[in-house]
Amino acid sequence: MRKIGTLNSAPQAERFGHYLAAQGIQNRVDAAGQEWEIWVYDEEQLARCREELDAFQSSPDAKKYAVKAPPAPKPARPQRVVTASRGSERIQVTIIITALCMIVTLGTNYGKQFDVTNEVRIAPVGGDLSNILHGQVWRLFTPMFLHFNLLHLGFNIYMFWILGGVIERIRGSWTLLALILLIALPSNLIQYSLSGGSFGGLSGVVYGLFGYLWMRSVFLPEDGFYMPESIVLQMIVWAIFGLTGNMFGLTDAIGAIANGAHFGGLFTGMLIGVLPRLWKNGG
Predict the structure, then answer these.
(1) How much of the chain is in helix, strand and coil states, percent to nearest 5?
(2) Domains held by the chain: number
């Protein structure tokens, strides 16, 4: 199911929805603030439906749109809607990354097993990036698996499960994996430049996935992503709280806050999310 656009009037949205149904196109109308979103179930009909919506917006009072509401469907056994989505019903990457965070965090006793912990840091504490230059490339990414207490781990995997799961279901496992790697690299390097190799956590990736979803929902809503304003506000507020140091005892609760990773991940995800729109406008 994909969103094809919005209308500013409930009666118009209902009128257009009835028209599509009369054409044999299964659809849904959802209220979203002051607008009404039009969703179509069959992705093979997307191009036609967007053309129909453009025509409707030009002359919504045309006679051809004056159709009766379709009869209520007879109760039937629920069936799975099969679409041509590029996404996946299985969230393998989301599960694997979540499991690795738990394994590495618990396996290092929340970073207290110092020798083992140093193997997953971007650089040993007090060291530099020379190990990466000598082939230990995994260090550029593995800090995202390391967490320093249960609250730190729980919050990050909770948010990752939500954001990563949405992306993997809609865009597929390979897209999510590519996003994770593209976001983790700059966010970890930025944090290293600020604090050395003593950091860890998935929050840079979480903020990057949030930024990606946010930009896609704003600039490419036809892709089917939706980011509620309440979540946007919550994530931005938490990022700002991180800059305040120990506000509300947050630093004591989860350890040093990796602001460089947060904002590096956020801006990387936002850039990746908006690039297709910039590309289209440039073309």
Answers:
(1) 65, 5, 30
(2) 2
